[in-house]
Give the backbone structure.
Amino acid sequence: MPDRLTYLDHAATTPLRPEAADAMAPWLGGRFGNPSGAHRVARAARRAVDEARDVVAAAVGCRPGDVVFTSGGTEADNLAVTGVPAARPGRVLCSAVEHEAVLAPVAAGGGCTVPVDASGAVDVDALAGVLGPDVTLVSVMAANNEVGTIQPVAAVAEAVRRRAPGAAVHADAVQAAPWLDLPALVAGADLVSVSSHKVGGPQGVGALVVRPGTPLRARALGGGQERELRSGTHNVAGIVGFAAALAAAAATRDEAAARVRALADRLADGLVAAVPGAVETVPDRAARLPGLVHLCVPGTESEALLFLLDEAGVCASAAAACASGAHQDSHVLAAMGVPRARAAGALRLSLGWSSTGADVDHALAVIPAAAARLREGAA
Ligand code: PLP
């Protein structure tokens, strides 16, 4: 076992905030109830879900009645991307750097991707060129999970209103939620996905915001919960924990973002100085999420580097977490035009609400030495 554990994979999942744990505790112990029932135990559970709904609505900038609780970001994305064309058939477009939870259902439905520039931002002119009255949905994430690029959601929404006025805009705000002012960022989106475990809530819960008038057909049919848009008994403890985490994140957001950005900048500066040839994938730091440092380390293979880091107690990743844990080429780096040889040494270090200066010190002590060891081995 290494002496110290440094967790730099908050974009994959971030630890449960104490506020979330406290809020959930009664619902994992004595309190219970099916919010769909009529008696007092059920009504108390429904009140808890409704209070959580108010918190989610305030965090995203919508009415409480627009919030549809789901089992997480993946289900929210799937509901948006498949539920809109089911209600209003037409072409579906998404950016080439979306999470698989958007890309896979878009591809399965015969939709198309829109290119991004070298920083990973969607090319709004290219999007405008393929928009037309037959488009029913455009999905563009608020911020990218691999490289952290913040997307021009407002410009996308404006282009859609002009060229495909009947189309809905979906924004996957799963990664943006801990860091950015969501009501401003996603004001132009008709549908917005959020996920609890990226903001310090429990895993397996999230929400899709559906603004009034957006055509959407339910995917999960059954008891008609969530205004008939998502059947299934509510995960009351999870929903309560999600809301508590979101409220805690919102209350400390600006201060946390500034603190974590300073840590991330020190980490990036230190690595660029200490690892020969290392380059930041998105050099404009204001254009990306505060906690995300993405580098390509020449002369190393991500998998080997991550193994050495893990041995030294630094948990990091190369790209998005995938079920197999196996390394796959990054579709995000490919879409940004990063040459394959450079992308082979990709390293994602993502900081979060619980990151400290000691984490950065440890990472700076370990990563340059690990990269040098791999280089020597390859020479
Ligand atoms: N969208 C983005 C941008 C993500 O980063 C993730 C998770 O990594 C998801 C969607 C999926 O969310 P969940 O893990 O809650 O299913």
